[in-house]
Amino acid sequence: MDRLWFMRIGDYAPIEDYAVIGDGRTAALVARDGSIDWLCLPNFDSPSVFARVLDAERGGAFELLPTIPFESSRRYLPRTNVLETLFTTDRGAVRVVDALTLPNDRLDPMRELIRAIEGVSGSVPMRWRVSPRFKYAASLPRCEWRHGIPVAASGAEAVAIAHWDAGSPVWRAGAVEAEFDIAAGARACLALAAAYAEPLVIPSRAAVEARLAQTIRFWEEWCRAREYRGPWSELVERSALVLKLLIFAPSGASVAAPTTSLPEDIGGERNWDYRFCWIRDSNFIISALLQLGCHREARSQFWWFMQATALTEPELHVLYRLDGGIGIDEHDIALEGYRGSRPVRVGNGALEQTQHDIYGDLLETAWLYSEGHHALDGDTGEVLGRIANRVGEIWRQPDSGIWEVRNGPFHFTHSKVMCWVALDRAVRLAERGELPSRHVSRWRREAAAIRAFVDEQCWSPQLCSYTRTAGSNDVDASLLMISLMQFDDPRGERVAGTIDAVCRLLQAGDFVFRYLADDGVPGGEGCFVNGSFWLVSALARAGRIAEASQLMERLCRRANDVGLYAEEIDPGSGAFLGNFPQALVHLALIDAAIAIRDAS
Amino acid sequence: MTVVWSAIAGGFLGTLVLTTIVRATSELGLTRMDLALLLGTTVTENRRKARAIGYAIHFVVGPIFALGYAALFVALGHHSWWMGGLFGALHAVFTGTVLANVILPLVHPRIATTDTAANEVSLIEPPGFLMRNYGPNTFLIALVAHVAFGAIVGWAVRI
Which of A391-395, A584-588, B109-113 has the lowest mean pLDDT? Predict the structure, then answer.
């Protein structure tokens, strides 16, 4: 474990000082000082109960820390999503184990957050304070007792804080708090039991301890069953655990990140809600799941994509709710925002945009799924055929592209390439008999037209690179996908030139900016961590393995102390920016590690 | 026999409406009352099974209560939807003050009472007086739902 001093900036913990725990239904962010600053109940996309990360004063949190100066270090228990924080003080050390537990067939709470406290040495005075603020801190809860158990409720939501050997709690100003001493060898426990639209289940200590042990065992066994053998196995394993944690088990959808409005620019307004499932992520998810041997999750994920898109096909929406719905209105909520970064948004306005690349992502997903020895049924084949036909009709139109720019539409090269991917994969699947073959000649004709358009309109002889948009003279990180998607020879001159142009124009140290052009949103942003791993993959596929390995090595050192990444990073300070942890970054890490392994 | 069958049919329909009102208001965030979970956990700890069993129990108990209503109608020699609604209101008050508040915790193996501490088995939060532990609106919802139940039974019964 690394031992690091903890520090908050104006009551806000640095984003890289968080770790995530989850149960496949929701997730919590745990700060290095033991404060749980983000938790939505009962699901990822439900309103928050703890949102201190977005409003230090009003958001609500579950604090648990020594009352005297301390330093803390932490790790995940090996091969689990269960977090262990070690607080070291002048009077001794104490270990806190945090987990969102997995249900069993017994009478367990609807959601349960356990904090087990073990005295390691000496005797340490501890304090805990739970300030539930339901519905994004819209109002104070009713604070009550049920036979000695503190209960907070508001509308259909309620939480109980069961406690054992952890002091005598009292309600004070909408928060329940207590102090206690923990000596070496002693064990105390706190369990937050949550209910939505049902009575609370107040757990017994024996049941809590049993569920914690069972949760640890589940993660260990799940992790042991993964099939990755290769370099950077520890970070690939952590990324796989993050990916599993971010899959919303009730539907099979994968949430892009469990947070909203962690800013891409501190103090700025690039604050988005990522608690949805993007079609764009689908091919990376399926690819990673299949490569890691997660066949059940891959099957569930593929069927979720097909069921969610069934309502809108052959039109696809950019993102869907975790239950597959499409009603996602974007609105602002009255929270201060992380370090004053307003607005805090709930919902995502990108839903209304036209983004053509997602058609390629879905067809690539189907292709990968089929390649993974999962046959497509006839109805799915018909749907995918209709989607391919739709691509043939729309690819000539401009769109908002992968970066969801708000000053478009433009003829993005990446969108054209992904339309080509959609048609190319449709042809391949038809040749395999998994899609109807009656439109194959049309798909081939349109794919050839796209290729000609990209070759002629989206190539800059001056830059010696593909360009961001047709006729422009700049680049963006999405061009790295050209070789990943096999649009062009990964070892060819054009791809090499594009990689060099991206490095020349967008790279800052180890990281890559998404683009430098105006996107219609005020303010700047950090480097896009995803793009850096795409660069690794592109380099590896281009045969530049030493370059790829060295960059990968450096990128892996930029993960936080528990192996997690946010969407973006400040290339100068290394501070994390944007929503955290982001699934796509961890998916790109897995892809990069596999690309280097395979190329080597 | 007409009175029995009409009461059973009315009880079934009334239970359907009552259950729908409670579930809908729960989904709307107005209460945390969950009749199926409360009834089903008398039999099993398994949440999924509990809900299924709970709904089954409720649809058996509903017509039995309707037979009780019918007996009162026969004794009084009169029945109407409004009289049924009045019985439903009394039923709701009894449930909120005695049945759910006192008797249910005593007989339910998994609901906490003032005598139990949550250190042995997982326990369901007790409903409390007028079931207010499940939200301040809960009694009002129960009242409306039971009045609807009684009115349907009063309308359906044939003496």
Answer: B109-113
Q: Which positions in chain A touch B25 (Cβ < 8 Å)? A: none
Q: pLDDT-based confidence at A59, cuts 50/70/90?
A: very high
Together in a domain, A249 and A207: no
Query: Per this entry, what is the length of chain B?
Result: 159
Structural domain that includes position A578:
233-258+278-331+355-599
**Does the pLDDT value for residue A5 go beyond 60?**
no
> Which residue type is seen at B81?
W
Whether A341 maps to a domain, the answer reads no
Of B45, B112, B120, the CB nearest to A147: B112
What residue has token string 């409306």? B144
| pLDDT tens per residue, range A331-369 | 999 999 999 999 999 998 777 778 999 999 999 999 999
- Cα–Cα dist B122/A201, whole Å: 7
Note whether A237 and A218 are same-domain residues.
Answer: no
d(CA A419, CA A450): 8
Using alpha carbons, select from A302, A424, A297 the residue that is nearest to residue A370: A302
Say if residues A525 and A568 touch (Cβ distance below 8 Å).
Answer: yes
> Does residue A125 have a cis peptide bond before it, meaning omega lies within 30 degrees of 0?
no
The reported pLDDT for the residue numbered A528 is 87
Q: Are A101 and A208 members of one domain? A: yes
**CATH number of the domain enclosing A238:** 1.50.10.10
Partner-chain contact A199 B133, CB within 8 Å: yes
Same domain? A203 vs A241: no
Query: Do both A320 and A199 map to the same domain?
Result: no
- pLDDT recorded at residue A475: 94
- What number is the ipTM of this complex? 0.83
Tell me the pTM: 0.91
Contacts of B134 in chain A (CB under 8 A): 199
Residues B45, A107: C-beta atoms closer than 8 Å:
yes
Residues A159 and A298 in one domain: no
Pick from A107, A148, A196: which is nearest to B117 by CB?
A148
